[in-house]
Amino acid sequence: KLHTPWTLTDLLNKTYSNNLDCLLTKYLEKKQFLRSYALNANSFSLKNKIRQIYKIPSNKINVLYYGLDNKDVDGYKDKKSLIKGDYIIYFGRLEERKGLKTLANAIKLVLNKKKVKFVFVGNEPDYSHGVKSYIINKNKENLDKIIFIKHKKRKDLFPLVSNSKLVVLPSPWEAFGYTCLEALSLGCIMLAARGSGFEEQIQKGNKNGFLFTPNNHKELAKKIIKILNMPKSKLNKIRKNARKRTLYFDNKNMTNRLLKYYEKLLKNENFNNNSNL
Question: What is the reported pTM?
Answer without folding.
Answer: 0.89
